[in-house]
Amino acid sequence: MITSPSPGLLVWLDGELIRHEDAHTPIWSNHYGFGVFEGVRAYRTGKRAAIFRVKDHTARLFRSAHILGMPLRQSWRPTDIVQAQVDVIRENELGDAYLRPFVFYDGVRGLTPHTDQLTLRVAVVALPWVTDTARPEERRGISVRTSTYTHNHPNSHLLRAKANANYMTAMLALAEAKSSGADDAILLDQDGCVTEGTAANVFSVRDAEVWTPPVTSVLEGITRETILGFARGMGLEIREERFTRDDLYSADEVFFTGTASEVTPIREIDGRSIGGCEIGPVTRQLAEFYAATVRGCAAQAHKWITLV
Ligand code: PMP
Protein backbone atom coordinates (compact mmCIF):
# COMPACT_ATOMS: atom_id res chain seq x y z
CA MET A 1 0.00 0.00 0.00
CA ILE A 2 1.38 3.41 -0.95
CA THR A 3 1.63 5.83 1.96
CA SER A 4 1.27 9.63 2.00
CA PRO A 5 4.33 11.87 1.62
CA SER A 6 5.81 12.87 4.96
CA PRO A 7 7.14 16.41 5.59
CA GLY A 8 10.61 16.87 4.18
CA LEU A 9 10.35 14.01 1.67
CA LEU A 10 12.75 14.75 -1.17
CA VAL A 11 11.48 14.55 -4.72
CA TRP A 12 13.35 14.90 -8.00
CA LEU A 13 11.96 17.67 -10.21
CA ASP A 14 13.63 18.57 -13.51
CA GLY A 15 17.05 17.45 -12.32
CA GLU A 16 17.01 18.73 -8.76
CA LEU A 17 16.18 17.13 -5.43
CA ILE A 18 13.79 19.38 -3.53
CA ARG A 19 11.31 19.02 -0.69
CA HIS A 20 7.91 17.63 -1.67
CA GLU A 21 6.17 20.70 -0.25
CA ASP A 22 8.32 22.96 -2.47
CA ALA A 23 7.63 21.00 -5.65
CA HIS A 24 5.06 23.30 -7.24
CA THR A 25 3.84 23.02 -10.78
CA PRO A 26 1.62 25.44 -12.71
CA ILE A 27 -2.12 25.01 -12.27
CA TRP A 28 -2.47 24.34 -16.01
CA SER A 29 -0.13 21.36 -15.88
CA ASN A 30 -3.07 19.10 -14.96
CA HIS A 31 -5.09 20.03 -17.97
CA TYR A 32 -6.58 17.27 -20.17
CA GLY A 33 -4.58 14.67 -18.23
CA PHE A 34 -1.87 14.92 -20.87
CA GLY A 35 1.18 13.08 -19.58
CA VAL A 36 2.75 9.69 -19.00
CA PHE A 37 4.04 7.96 -15.91
CA GLU A 38 5.47 4.79 -14.41
CA GLY A 39 4.98 2.75 -11.26
CA VAL A 40 8.12 1.03 -9.98
CA ARG A 41 8.87 -0.87 -6.76
CA ALA A 42 11.93 -0.90 -4.56
CA TYR A 43 12.42 -3.64 -1.98
CA ARG A 44 14.50 -3.76 1.16
CA THR A 45 17.17 -6.42 0.65
CA GLY A 46 19.57 -6.63 3.58
CA LYS A 47 21.11 -3.18 4.13
CA ARG A 48 20.41 -1.86 0.63
CA ALA A 49 17.22 -1.26 -1.28
CA ALA A 50 16.87 -2.92 -4.67
CA ILE A 51 14.78 -1.41 -7.46
CA PHE A 52 13.12 -4.07 -9.58
CA ARG A 53 13.40 -3.81 -13.39
CA VAL A 54 13.94 -0.04 -13.20
CA LYS A 55 15.61 0.03 -16.64
CA ASP A 56 12.60 -1.71 -18.19
CA HIS A 57 10.15 0.67 -16.50
CA THR A 58 12.22 3.64 -17.64
CA ALA A 59 12.33 2.29 -21.19
CA ARG A 60 8.53 2.03 -21.11
CA LEU A 61 8.31 5.63 -19.81
CA PHE A 62 10.35 6.81 -22.82
CA ARG A 63 8.22 4.72 -25.20
CA SER A 64 5.03 6.14 -23.64
CA ALA A 65 6.30 9.71 -24.10
CA HIS A 66 7.32 8.98 -27.70
CA ILE A 67 3.88 7.51 -28.48
CA LEU A 68 2.22 10.70 -27.21
CA GLY A 69 4.72 12.85 -29.11
CA MET A 70 6.30 14.27 -25.96
CA PRO A 71 9.97 15.24 -26.50
CA LEU A 72 11.36 13.44 -23.44
CA ARG A 73 14.34 12.06 -25.39
CA GLN A 74 15.42 15.58 -26.35
CA SER A 75 16.00 16.59 -22.72
CA TRP A 76 16.80 13.40 -20.82
CA ARG A 77 18.51 10.05 -21.32
CA PRO A 78 17.02 6.90 -19.77
CA THR A 79 20.13 6.61 -17.59
CA ASP A 80 19.36 10.08 -16.09
CA ILE A 81 15.87 8.97 -15.11
CA VAL A 82 17.15 5.66 -13.69
CA GLN A 83 19.67 7.66 -11.64
CA ALA A 84 16.89 10.01 -10.45
CA GLN A 85 14.99 6.98 -9.12
CA VAL A 86 18.10 5.65 -7.37
CA ASP A 87 18.71 9.11 -5.86
CA VAL A 88 15.22 9.57 -4.39
CA ILE A 89 15.37 6.13 -2.75
CA ARG A 90 18.86 6.77 -1.39
CA GLU A 91 18.37 10.37 -0.23
CA ASN A 92 15.11 9.52 1.55
CA GLU A 93 16.72 6.38 3.04
CA LEU A 94 13.82 4.25 1.82
CA GLY A 95 13.67 0.46 1.76
CA ASP A 96 10.31 -0.92 0.62
CA ALA A 97 9.01 1.88 -1.59
CA TYR A 98 6.90 2.81 -4.57
CA LEU A 99 8.44 5.05 -7.23
CA ARG A 100 6.42 7.22 -9.53
CA PRO A 101 8.17 9.00 -12.40
CA PHE A 102 5.87 11.54 -14.13
CA VAL A 103 6.32 13.33 -17.47
CA PHE A 104 3.99 16.27 -18.17
CA TYR A 105 3.85 19.75 -19.67
CA ASP A 106 3.89 22.91 -17.60
CA GLY A 107 0.60 24.15 -19.02
CA VAL A 108 -1.56 22.78 -21.78
CA ARG A 109 -4.00 25.60 -22.53
CA GLY A 110 -5.43 24.32 -25.80
CA LEU A 111 -5.87 21.04 -27.62
CA THR A 112 -2.54 21.40 -29.44
CA PRO A 113 0.02 20.28 -26.87
CA HIS A 114 2.88 19.76 -29.35
CA THR A 115 3.98 23.34 -29.37
CA ASP A 116 7.35 24.94 -28.76
CA GLN A 117 5.85 27.17 -26.10
CA LEU A 118 5.39 24.33 -23.63
CA THR A 119 8.04 23.15 -21.21
CA LEU A 120 8.33 19.42 -20.58
CA ARG A 121 8.58 18.64 -16.87
CA VAL A 122 9.80 15.43 -15.28
CA ALA A 123 9.29 14.46 -11.65
CA VAL A 124 10.21 11.36 -9.65
CA VAL A 125 8.52 10.75 -6.33
CA ALA A 126 9.19 7.80 -3.99
CA LEU A 127 6.87 6.89 -1.14
CA PRO A 128 7.31 4.24 1.55
CA TRP A 129 5.41 1.02 0.82
CA VAL A 130 3.63 -0.60 3.75
CA THR A 131 2.07 -4.07 3.55
CA ASP A 132 -1.63 -3.82 4.36
CA THR A 133 -1.97 -6.24 7.27
CA ALA A 134 -5.50 -4.94 7.87
CA ARG A 135 -6.68 -7.02 4.92
CA PRO A 136 -5.63 -10.62 5.68
CA GLU A 137 -8.35 -11.92 3.31
CA GLU A 138 -6.22 -10.69 0.41
CA ARG A 139 -3.80 -13.50 1.13
CA ARG A 140 -6.59 -15.91 0.11
CA GLY A 141 -7.40 -13.76 -2.86
CA ILE A 142 -9.58 -10.81 -3.82
CA SER A 143 -13.08 -10.58 -5.25
CA VAL A 144 -13.60 -8.82 -8.56
CA ARG A 145 -16.53 -7.70 -10.68
CA THR A 146 -16.80 -7.47 -14.44
CA SER A 147 -17.12 -3.76 -15.11
CA THR A 148 -20.01 -2.12 -16.94
CA TYR A 149 -17.36 0.17 -18.48
CA THR A 150 -15.83 -1.04 -21.74
CA HIS A 151 -12.02 -1.12 -21.80
CA ASN A 152 -10.30 1.68 -23.72
CA HIS A 153 -10.10 0.97 -27.43
CA PRO A 154 -6.52 0.65 -28.78
CA ASN A 155 -7.29 3.21 -31.48
CA SER A 156 -8.53 5.85 -29.07
CA HIS A 157 -6.18 5.52 -26.12
CA LEU A 158 -2.94 4.06 -27.55
CA LEU A 159 -2.65 1.29 -24.99
CA ARG A 160 1.12 0.76 -25.31
CA ALA A 161 1.53 4.13 -23.60
CA LYS A 162 1.10 4.32 -19.84
CA ALA A 163 -0.71 7.61 -20.23
CA ASN A 164 -2.49 9.54 -17.49
CA ALA A 165 -5.75 9.88 -19.41
CA ASN A 166 -5.98 6.13 -20.01
CA TYR A 167 -6.77 5.76 -16.30
CA MET A 168 -10.12 7.61 -16.35
CA THR A 169 -11.93 4.39 -17.30
CA ALA A 170 -9.96 2.42 -14.71
CA MET A 171 -10.89 4.88 -11.96
CA LEU A 172 -14.58 4.73 -12.86
CA ALA A 173 -14.46 0.93 -12.99
CA LEU A 174 -12.67 0.67 -9.64
CA ALA A 175 -15.15 3.01 -7.95
CA GLU A 176 -18.04 0.98 -9.38
CA ALA A 177 -16.52 -2.33 -8.23
CA LYS A 178 -15.81 -1.02 -4.72
CA SER A 179 -19.31 0.44 -4.35
CA SER A 180 -20.71 -3.02 -5.07
CA GLY A 181 -18.49 -4.57 -2.37
CA ALA A 182 -15.80 -6.04 -4.64
CA ASP A 183 -12.07 -5.30 -4.36
CA ASP A 184 -11.37 -4.61 -8.03
CA ALA A 185 -12.77 -4.82 -11.56
CA ILE A 186 -12.01 -6.70 -14.76
CA LEU A 187 -12.77 -4.81 -17.97
CA LEU A 188 -14.01 -6.36 -21.21
CA ASP A 189 -13.28 -4.99 -24.66
CA GLN A 190 -15.91 -3.90 -27.19
CA ASP A 191 -16.40 -7.55 -28.27
CA GLY A 192 -16.86 -8.83 -24.72
CA CYS A 193 -13.38 -10.33 -24.43
CA VAL A 194 -11.41 -10.06 -21.20
CA THR A 195 -8.70 -7.38 -21.17
CA GLU A 196 -7.20 -6.55 -17.76
CA GLY A 197 -7.84 -5.22 -14.28
CA THR A 198 -7.84 -1.52 -13.40
CA ALA A 199 -4.07 -1.56 -12.80
CA ALA A 200 -3.03 -5.16 -13.43
CA ASN A 201 -2.86 -7.82 -16.11
CA VAL A 202 -5.06 -10.87 -15.69
CA PHE A 203 -4.12 -14.55 -16.02
CA SER A 204 -6.10 -17.76 -15.77
CA VAL A 205 -4.93 -21.33 -15.34
CA ARG A 206 -6.84 -24.31 -16.65
CA ASP A 207 -5.54 -27.85 -17.20
CA ALA A 208 -1.87 -26.76 -16.90
CA GLU A 209 -2.38 -24.03 -19.52
CA VAL A 210 -1.78 -20.42 -18.57
CA TRP A 211 -3.96 -17.91 -20.43
CA THR A 212 -3.55 -14.15 -20.65
CA PRO A 213 -4.95 -11.67 -23.20
CA PRO A 214 -2.56 -10.50 -25.95
CA VAL A 215 -0.88 -7.12 -25.53
CA THR A 216 -2.86 -5.61 -28.41
CA SER A 217 -5.66 -4.89 -25.94
CA VAL A 218 -3.82 -4.36 -22.65
CA LEU A 219 -0.83 -2.61 -21.11
CA GLU A 220 2.37 -4.52 -21.85
CA GLY A 221 2.95 -5.28 -18.18
CA ILE A 222 6.48 -5.79 -16.96
CA THR A 223 5.25 -8.19 -14.27
CA ARG A 224 3.23 -9.98 -16.97
CA GLU A 225 6.44 -10.60 -18.88
CA THR A 226 8.29 -11.75 -15.74
CA ILE A 227 5.49 -14.17 -14.86
CA LEU A 228 5.23 -15.56 -18.41
CA GLY A 229 8.95 -16.36 -18.19
CA PHE A 230 8.48 -18.15 -14.86
CA ALA A 231 5.47 -20.09 -16.20
CA ARG A 232 7.44 -21.22 -19.27
CA GLY A 233 10.25 -22.31 -16.96
CA MET A 234 7.73 -24.40 -14.99
CA GLY A 235 6.86 -26.23 -18.22
CA LEU A 236 3.36 -24.73 -18.46
CA GLU A 237 1.77 -24.10 -21.82
CA ILE A 238 1.25 -20.37 -22.48
CA ARG A 239 -1.78 -19.10 -24.41
CA GLU A 240 -1.63 -15.35 -25.18
CA GLU A 241 -5.10 -15.32 -26.72
CA ARG A 242 -8.45 -13.61 -26.36
CA PHE A 243 -11.02 -15.25 -24.11
CA THR A 244 -14.34 -14.40 -22.53
CA ARG A 245 -15.59 -13.82 -19.00
CA ASP A 246 -17.05 -17.32 -18.72
CA ASP A 247 -13.57 -18.72 -19.41
CA LEU A 248 -12.56 -16.97 -16.20
CA TYR A 249 -15.58 -18.32 -14.30
CA SER A 250 -14.60 -21.88 -15.23
CA ALA A 251 -10.84 -21.52 -14.71
CA ASP A 252 -9.00 -23.49 -12.01
CA GLU A 253 -7.10 -20.36 -10.97
CA VAL A 254 -7.23 -16.66 -11.82
CA PHE A 255 -4.75 -14.01 -10.71
CA PHE A 256 -3.68 -10.44 -11.36
CA THR A 257 -0.09 -9.35 -11.99
CA GLY A 258 1.35 -5.87 -11.63
CA THR A 259 4.13 -3.90 -10.03
CA ALA A 260 1.86 -2.89 -7.15
CA SER A 261 -0.29 -6.05 -7.03
CA GLU A 262 2.65 -8.44 -7.68
CA VAL A 263 0.81 -11.79 -8.02
CA THR A 264 -2.65 -11.35 -6.48
CA PRO A 265 -4.91 -14.42 -6.41
CA ILE A 266 -8.57 -13.87 -7.36
CA ARG A 267 -10.95 -16.06 -5.38
CA GLU A 268 -14.28 -14.76 -6.69
CA ILE A 269 -15.53 -13.18 -9.90
CA ASP A 270 -19.09 -11.80 -10.20
CA GLY A 271 -20.15 -13.82 -7.16
CA ARG A 272 -18.75 -17.12 -8.52
CA SER A 273 -15.99 -18.82 -6.58
CA ILE A 274 -12.85 -19.67 -8.53
CA GLY A 275 -11.16 -23.00 -7.92
CA GLY A 276 -12.69 -23.55 -4.48
CA CYS A 277 -11.72 -20.12 -3.13
CA GLU A 278 -8.23 -21.27 -2.13
CA ILE A 279 -5.00 -20.05 -3.71
CA GLY A 280 -4.22 -22.52 -6.49
CA PRO A 281 -0.85 -24.30 -6.74
CA VAL A 282 0.30 -22.47 -9.89
CA THR A 283 -0.61 -19.05 -8.48
CA ARG A 284 1.11 -19.88 -5.21
CA GLN A 285 4.31 -21.04 -6.89
CA LEU A 286 4.43 -18.02 -9.20
CA ALA A 287 3.76 -15.65 -6.28
CA GLU A 288 6.55 -17.22 -4.21
CA PHE A 289 8.96 -17.16 -7.14
CA TYR A 290 8.12 -13.51 -7.80
CA ALA A 291 8.52 -12.52 -4.14
CA ALA A 292 11.95 -14.18 -4.01
CA THR A 293 13.04 -12.62 -7.31
CA VAL A 294 12.15 -9.01 -6.49
CA ARG A 295 14.11 -9.31 -3.23
CA GLY A 296 17.14 -10.67 -5.07
CA CYS A 297 16.88 -14.18 -3.60
CA ALA A 298 16.48 -16.09 -6.86
CA ALA A 299 19.19 -17.05 -9.35
CA GLN A 300 17.69 -15.07 -12.22
CA ALA A 301 17.15 -11.93 -10.07
CA HIS A 302 20.46 -10.10 -10.48
CA LYS A 303 19.83 -9.06 -14.10
CA TRP A 304 16.66 -7.20 -13.02
CA ILE A 305 17.86 -5.57 -9.82
CA THR A 306 19.50 -2.18 -9.34
CA LEU A 307 20.99 -1.85 -5.87
CA VAL A 308 20.74 1.58 -4.25
N1 PMP B 1 -2.44 -2.94 -16.76
C1 PMP B 1 -2.64 -1.69 -16.28
C2 PMP B 1 -3.79 -0.92 -16.80
C3 PMP B 1 -1.78 -1.14 -15.31
O1 PMP B 1 -1.98 0.09 -14.83
C4 PMP B 1 -0.71 -1.93 -14.83
C5 PMP B 1 0.21 -1.36 -13.77
N2 PMP B 1 1.26 -0.63 -14.34
C6 PMP B 1 -0.52 -3.21 -15.36
C7 PMP B 1 -1.41 -3.69 -16.32
C8 PMP B 1 0.64 -4.05 -14.93
O2 PMP B 1 1.82 -3.51 -15.44
P1 PMP B 1 3.21 -3.70 -14.68
O3 PMP B 1 3.35 -5.16 -14.44
O4 PMP B 1 4.21 -3.18 -15.64
O5 PMP B 1 3.11 -2.93 -13.42
UniProtKB/TrEMBL annotation:
Its cofactor is pyridoxal 5'-phosphate. One of its GO terms (biological process) is aspartate biosynthetic process. It comes from the Bacteria. It comes from Mycobacterium asiaticum. GO terms for cellular component: cytosol. Pathway: Amino-acid biosynthesis; L-isoleucine biosynthesis; L-isoleucine from 2-oxobutanoate: step 4/4; Amino-acid biosynthesis; L-leucine biosynthesis; L-leucine from 3-methyl-2-oxobutanoate: step 4/4; Amino-acid biosynthesis; L-valine biosynthesis; L-valine from pyruvate: step 4/4. Keywords: Amino-acid biosynthesis, Aminotransferase, Branched-chain amino acid biosynthesis, Pyridoxal phosphate, Transferase. NCBIfam families: ilvE_I, PRK06606.1. Its EC number is 2.6.1.42. Pfam families: Aminotran_4. Belongs to the class-IV pyridoxal-phosphate-dependent aminotransferase family. It catalyses: L-valine + 2-oxoglutarate = 3-methyl-2-oxobutanoate + L-glutamate; L-leucine + 2-oxoglutarate = 4-methyl-2-oxopentanoate + L-glutamate; L-isoleucine + 2-oxoglutarate = (S)-3-methyl-2-oxopentanoate + L-glutamate. GO terms for molecular function: L-isoleucine-2-oxoglutarate transaminase activity; L-leucine-2-oxoglutarate transaminase activity; L-valine-2-oxoglutarate transaminase activity. Acts on leucine, isoleucine and valine. InterPro entries: Aminotrans_IV, Aminotrans_IV_CS, Aminotransferase-like, B_amino_transI, BCAT-like_C, BCAT-like_N, Class-IV_PLP-Dep_Aminotrnsfr. Coiled coil: none annotated. This is Branched-chain-amino-acid aminotransferase.
